[in-house]
Amino acid sequence: MSTAGRSVRAEVRGRLAAADPGLLRFTAGLRTVLAIALTLAVLAALRLDVSHLVAGAIAAMVATFAIREKGRSQQAVTLALGLPVALVSMSLGALLNQRVVIGDLFFVALIFCAVYSRRFGDRGTALGLIGFQIYFASLFVHATGPALPGLYVVIAVAFGSAALARFVLVPQTPAGILGRLRRAFRGRFAQLVAAQAELLDAGPDELDKAVEEVRVRTARLHETALLIQGRLPDGTSDEAVARLVQRRIADAEIAAERLGLMLLTARSARRADTLTLHLPGAHLPSAPPLPARDEALEQLRLDLEALRLLVLRPAGPQPGTALSRLRNRLLGYREEENLPPADPAVQDVFRGIGEAARAVMGLRIALDGPQDESDDTPATSRSREELDAEDAAIEVAEEEEVETEEATGLHRPTTRAAVQVAVGSSLAIVGGEFLSAQRWYWAVLTCWIVFLNTASTGEILVKGYRRLLGTVLGVVAGIGLAGLVGHHTWTAFGLVLLFVFAMFYSAPLSYTLMSFFVTAMLGLLYTLLNTYSLDVLVLRIGETALGAVCGVISAAVVLPVHTDRRTDELLVTTLDRLADVTRAAADQLSGAPPADLVEKARDLDQALADLRAAVQPLTHPITPLRSRRDTARYVVALLETCAYHARSLAATAELLPTHPAIAADPRLRGAGQRIVHNIEAIAAQVDDRRPAAEIETGPSIAAMLEPGTLRAPRYGRVTDRVLRHLQRLDEAVAGLARPLKVPVRARAA
User: Fold this and answer.
1) Which residues make Cβ contacts (< 8 Å) with residue 309, sequence separation at least 6?
2) Residues near 179 by Cβ (< 8 Å), separated by ≥ 6?
3) Residues 6+ away with beta carbon under 8 Å from 449
4) Which of 648, 150, 12 lies closest to 352 in space, CA to CA?
5) Do the Cβ atoms of 85 and 66 come closer than 8 Å?
6) What is the mean pLDDT of residues 514-523?
7) What's the rounded Cα separation, in Å, for the pair 503 and 514?
8) What is the pLDDT of residues 295-341, one digit of tens each?
9) How far apart are CA 590 and CA 604, in angstroms?
10) Spatial contact of 445 and 136, defined as CB atoms under 8 Å apart
11) Residues 502/454, Cβ–Cβ less than 8 Å
């Protein structure tokens, strides 16, 4: 195959991998569809009726999606334990179906146990989910005692089909998932570089859109880095390899984000505010467009495209190829004498491209092993020697044992959630019986679902609203589909499989869209069971609304966790992690012994991701509190800016033992102390630990070290970078004081 053909093929694979990192959504949908299809094929061969086919489809779906463990052996054990749980649940559902009071009481107890079982990890969560969903299936198909032998066969076939789909037809290993996530990282890196190239050429009317695209793709790259972080322990051969890959992923992410900031600076004709890349709706300062025929800018456009090709290529460039020559040229920009004549801001972009090319080469070596070095230029050889020295210096650090005080009793999250769901489900059962004595369980299902993966009243409210909206839209679609399909059984089942795949593929993207596919699928199942009518689908809307309301009432009244309290707790955790990273990085840059900075930075990223998810009720478009929404967005954006600079400081600090251009400076410890003090003061204020705490402002970080400015020539390139990150971090932390109402005290120079 020609080089051009391989490049096109690599680019297509990169785009597919970037759209669905690790193909996790595609694999989940495909595996579930195959499990259902196999179940239907076997049950049809056994000549079972439609109600058994529907029960089998539900059981196969549950047996597939309930299991979330990463190891294949753990998955097999959980699936084997799930079979007797499903059989018992179906039996109890069939026996208690006609006993209203006893059946309802048992259903509430089952719901409590299913939620409480989450405290036992992924296996407990899976078994609780299987027990609840199979009991629900027994109500859906109106299971009875005499029908149990046939239903036992259905469940056994469904679990066997789920095992075949999981372990034979669509096998997944931790190493395989990690490999696909790596390709996704490359694809999203390439997409970000393409967006940065578009930013370079964007006209005045297109500038805001180009900045937003860079912002979105930067966030997607970070999301993929976090996914890789979560899969490294299980997907790599040993801890040293995991640490090396983690380090190289972090380097590449930081280099890509730094390149974007340099491009923003070149476009705005002044130092760009880092916040521009993190605050939705932020505008780039207006500036005259860059000259279209400038030689340096034309070279810059070509080099951005070359960087994109280097990222996408699945293996290291071979000697003598065009890509190897491009790689050597890009790495040459790390040397001052190789920079093209241009404005200083544009020269910074060339430096950024050189650093990004170095990060890409480091990532290649970590993922693909050693490469041919016969075509290396002196600049490439120096970059490779730096990477080899860094790799050799990476040691497996001992994990710090962090003692956390575990909540007990009703304060334990799983216990509190179990009580809330039990109370909400009881209300849903009572209310649902008034709406329909036959289909009251839809209200219970909605109440159960709105509590999944939520931790505050606001999150439950938003999730309930989204489910109701998706249900209404799905009912409209279900009406049309039922009329088209009629009683064509296999056509209806074919559409059911299509909707199941769409449901799993869209679930992480949009809960509303997922609810739409679920409701449309249920409309088809009703058609197959000959229970379809417009009244049934309208009743589905009423039961869904009732279940959502019952869930919100229960969350607001029974052991409530208010959104403000939840976000404050996560905000304090994020600030504590930020202080840890900043303190450790400043200490190491000052000459302290090495620490596990990359791991600390990833802990910060995870805490920030949890906070970002928790503030969604505050930042949702329908929230009536516009001022609070803007404040929440601003605070999260400032924290993302802080996290970027802290990650960059940590990455630079880890170079100290091996990089010849970096030397420890004891004065940096004092510069970092003010930042850490301010972070801790803000955390104390939010946590009400020290309400009178004040943050300190005063001379710039550069002025704290010696008189002058950041752009003074006495600073080397790496030192200048460290000072920039410290200064920007100092400014961003100080910026948190106003929205969080923390007093500010100016310190004299």
Assistant:
1) 7, 323, 326
2) 235
3) 463, 467
4) 648
5) no
6) 84
7) 5
8) 888 888 888 999 998 888 755 556 557 778 888 888 888 888 788 88
9) 22
10) yes
11) no
On whether the CB atoms of residues 534 and 491 are closer than 8 A, the answer is no
Give ∠ CA 173-179-182 in degrees, rounded to 5: 145
Burial of 717 (0-12, 13-18, 19+ CB in 10 A): exposed
Angle at 548 between CA 545 and CA 554, to 5 degrees: 140
How many other CB atoms sit within 10 Å of the CB of residue 368?
12
**Range with the poorest average pLDDT among 130-144, 414-428, 648-662:** 648-662
Task: Flag the least confident range among 167-181, 339-353, 437-451, 715-729.
Answer: 715-729
Give the residue from 131, 96, 102 showing the smallest Cα distance to 117: 131
**What is the spatial distance between Cα 634 and Cα 625, in angstroms, rounded to a whole number?**
14
For the segment 57-67, the average pLDDT, to the nearest whole number, is 93
Q: Which residue has the tokens 């230029």?
A: 377
φ/ψ region of 370 (left if φ > 0, alpha if ψ in -120 to 50, else beta) reads beta
| 594 secondary structure, DSSP code | P
Is the pLDDT higher at 456 or at 123? 123
- Distance from C-alpha of 69 to C-alpha of 233, rounded to nearest angstrom: 14
Q: Which of 369, 375, 408 is nearest to 387 (CA)?
A: 369
Name every residue whose Cβ is closer than 8 Å to that of residue 666 and which is 6 or more positions away in sequence.
590, 591
Structure tokens that stand for 287 in this block: 């500036």
User: Going by C-beta distance under 8 Å and a sequence separation of 6 or more, which residues neighbour residue 600?
Assistant: 577, 580, 581, 584, 650
| pLDDT tens readout for residues 162-173 | 999 999 999 988
Choice among 12-21, 335-344, 493-502 with the minimum mean pLDDT: 12-21
- The pLDDT of residue 211 is 87
Query: Which residues are paired to 20 by β-bridges?
Result: none
Give the pLDDT of residue 707: 42
Residues 6+ apart with CB under 8 A from 620: 462, 629
- Which pLDDT does position 165 carry in this prediction? 95
- Let me know: does 377 contact 333? Beta carbons within 8 Å: no
Residue tagged 């009991």 (tokens): 135
Alpha-carbon span 510 to 695, nearest angstrom: 40
- Helices (H) then strands (E): counts for the chain: 27, 2
Residue 430 CB neighbours (<10 A): 14
pTM exceeds 0.70 for this model: yes
